[in-house]
Amino acid sequence: MKTSECDVAIVGSGLAGATIAFFLTRAGHTVTVLEKGPAYPYPHIEQFTAQGFSASLSDYFLPRDLKHHTLSGQYQHKLENERFMNTGGSASRWSAIALRMRPQDFKTRSLFGFDLDWPLTYDELEPAYCRAEALLGVSGTDDDNPFAPARSRPYPLPPFELGWDDLRFQEKLAAGGIHMHTTAQARTRLDYDERPGCKNYGRCFNCPIGARYSPNVYLERALATGLCTLHNDVSVRRIHVEGLRARTLVCRQHAADDDRELAARYVVVAAGAIESARLLLLSASASHPDGLGNDSGHVGSNFALHHLWGGNIRFQEPIYGGRFGGWTGQSHQFLDPPERGRHGGAKIELSSRPPSFASVARQRWTSVEDLRRRLRSKMYTRRVALHCETALSPEKSITLSREADRFGDPFAHVHYVGSPFDRETYAFARRIFERIVAASGGEEQSFAPFESYHSAAHHMGTCRMGERAADSVVDRHGRVHGIANLYVIGESNFTGSSGAVNPALTVAALAIRTSDHLLDQLP
Amino acid sequence: MRVSRRDFLRWATALVTLGGCGTGDPTPGESSAPVGTVGDRSPASASPAEPTALSQSALEVLRKLTEVFTGIPYSSDFVFEDNHYDSYFQWWAERLPRRGALYEHLGRALEQRAQESFGKPFTGCDAEACLDLIEGAFGGEQKRLFVEQIQRPILKIYTDTDAWIDMGYESWRGRPRGLESYRQPPPGAGLEAGLVKR
Lengths: 523, 198
Hints:
The complex is a heterodimer of chains A (523) and B (198). Chain A has 523 residues and is α/β, with parallel strands linked by helices.
């Protein structure tokens, strides 16, 4: 087995990994990034173009015999489709909503009696939030959002104003006591940091010009220093630990016949909540029989998803949704309800989706005129999503599967069942939706049943952060308890769900803190 | 140009039978050329081995078919100002040589049929005649390929693009629409359901 060496090895090139690679290389340190998935060219013009021509992006997909997981319980969607395992990770294709968690979200145990408090407070993380907003190029304002947490610096970019359809909706909802406002997003309202301002192409999941943030932009900058090496299509199979230190990573290039070892002074695992836990569990040894950081049995526990339920409202007049590519309107009014603890908070996403014209063309129409009539009928419906907080449960966990990948390593097994708390939250979300329908003057067309919740691709927990090894996996810097040079960073560190707000900005803020910490450690 | 209800229904039914207006993904047995760029950091190589440009005659037949299936005349600026239908067929022909050969083959078959039946080019026929020619020219596997690789994509492109204009939008997703117009009323706002007249 061949061995090579580096200062810092990072497993995963997504939001957390790319952020750490950027800051470490900027300070002159050498970094090796190991990405299990294929390359994902940036800016994403090729992907944008291919999608425009209805081509599959399968060239950028990790093969199923490396990406699969098994699933039990209740979750009805394909988690595989929510994990974009390629250069840049899941944030290479995302909505770019970049919100701060609220101070209360860090203290749900002491304030509301559920889940666990973080070892960090909002005030401690606030400076890193400011830096994360600067890093991602967040456009926003709190001027119209009375529910926003306090901040020490303004947003780096002005907000995306509400669209024409949102403004009409805002007026109606206000009459019903619901306050709708703009949303912060990692999409450049103006030219910023060598990224162009948004041109509103739409189809933002693959922004063709880099206006919407992708981790790839900072990975490219890290690579440009000459201090960063990126290896795609490499599975990290084990982390070998000797004494209190991680020594080597056992890696397999997917086309190779044998493993290689990479020795590193520091190891950062930033592979998402599911794969990070899996790697710690796979790395069990005589000295760590239950896996790394798992002396207390918490690796893989405390798995949290968000629960997103959508509903459709039909109006008398056309909505003209989809004229802006991203989202402009949200409401944070219900993030922290008075009954929080009995159920969770909810965020309203008033997405300005385009009408589903493509679905009409699949129907049985009889003439061009008939086709156009059916297309028009799609313009009267608006979708509203309720994005909800969840609570931890023993029925939400990651373990190792009995099925194995191409190299014989067990896949992750995901077990997930919604709790009574979650059902209460669903009822709360349902009531909010009914209020929205009544205020908007529309007619309810549909609302998703409880069991159909979607995670919004927000996978959290599994390697939670805490002060003590007895009830957590990593410390407040992401360092694995008991292993001096091994870190796990990302959504996996969350102690539960991130309230009901999108977790990406918090991931970036945590990665910035860990970068600072590593810079203090490195000579 | 008008298409009779009978003829249109015939083709719409074929479309639904075959799964509707779907994607441009390769059909089974058709090799898929990747779409990325060549390089050791990118496994998704873009360049086809032998780029194939569509012939003018094939393109003209495809344009005529676009007229027939969308009801939008060729002269409309909406459709052809940026050649998004042409671009689609060219893009796939360059990446999947067999797809390009199929466009050429089906185009030649329609031309030949038009000459035999009416003594004039396919592009010179009216819409109903075109549908009759299509009906007579293809059967079985060829009809399936025609529907999957030509008719369905034309309608998919239409619903992704020109349908937006027809419904009263100023533009469609995929274009740089800027950050001003989305805050203003769209061109079709306040109009009766007829919306934009071409």
